[in-house]
Specification:
- Helices cover 7% and strands 34% of the residues.
- The longest helix is centred in the N-terminal third of the chain and has 12 residues, at 57-68.
- It has 2 helices and 12 strands.
- By secondary structure, the protein is mostly beta strands.
- The chain has a 7-stranded antiparallel sheet, with no helix packed on it. A 5-stranded antiparallel sheet has the order 1-2-10-4-8, with helices on one face.
- It has one domain (57-214): Jelly Rolls (Sandwich), CATH 2.60.120.
- Bound molecules: fe (ii) ion.
- Fe (ii) ion binds next to strand 9.
- Residues 1-57 are annotated as: Disordered.
- One of its GO terms (molecular function) is dioxygenase activity.
- Belongs to the cysteine dioxygenase family.
- This is Cysteine dioxygenase.
Length: 216
């Protein structure tokens, strides 16, 4: 079991949290997302049995929710008010899974998960997800101006979760100024890479690409 607040960064919670993106992707923009209340996206890849096998996004979400509701797992995570902590978990069907603690004000910044689908569920506190409801070209661009109207935001309260298909672009943060959050994340296939973006209004810029060696 690896637990650290300072070792290589888990894929879903890079350090340090970047500055909040300016509008319209700002962090206090709750709005209903396209997905149903189950937290399962209606987009491609979220629910269908994948051609390449492995757990569906719905199955990853089920794992994340069940694990997030298990105090025997969640309570193993040491919490550090100064930084994130994490434990790598055994996800279902060969998926990659993490238990992550988020001090107040920390977040991931904008990123995607390449061809992996995934899910996360909040065990403690409350996370906020900002996402794009549009599929972006996965390659061949460095800076992209989004058309208005594709930003979505949702709160993921303790006991709830969220699933997504491949090429999902989002940021996740603990917007609380005093309450720690803990969450469970699962991805399949195990993340081949993560593309990280900066955001200035509607302009998304690819900053760098992380590989598994960066967070193992
Ligand atoms: Fe993510």
């Amino acid at each position: 079991m690896s637990v650290s607040a300072h070792a290589p960064v888990p894929p879903h919670a890079p350090a340090p949290a970047p500055a909040p993106a300016p509008a319209p992707a700002a962090h206090s923009r709750p709005a209903p997302d396209a997905g149903p209340e189950s937290g399962l996206d209606s987009g491609p890849g979220a629910a269908a049995r994948p051609r390449g096998g492995g757990p569906t996004a719905a199955e990853l979400l089920d794992f994340a929710r069940r694990t997030a509701s298990d105090p025997d797992v969640v309570d193993r995570l040491p919490l550090d008010p100064e930084g994130r902590t994490w434990i790598r978990l055994d996800g279902p069907g060969g998926s990659e899974a993490w238990l992550i603690g988020w001090p107040p004000g920390t977040g991931t910044g904008w990123h995607d998960h390449a061809e992996s689908r995934g899910a996360f569920a909040t065990a403690r506190g409350r996370l906020v997800e900002h996402s794009l409801a549009v599929r972006l070209p996965s390659e061949g661009w460095h800076r992209l101006e989004l058309a208005p109207g594709h930003d979505r935001s949702r709160a993921v309260q303790a006991g709830t979760g969220r699933a997504f298909g491949e090429h999902h672009v989002h940021e996740v943060l603990n917007a609380s100024d005093r309450e720690h959050a803990v969450s469970v994340h699962a991805y399949y296939p195990p993340l081949p890479q993560i593309r990280r973006y900066s955001r200035n209004g509607l302009v998304l810029t690819l900053e760098h690409v992380e590989r598994p060696a960066d967070w193992q």
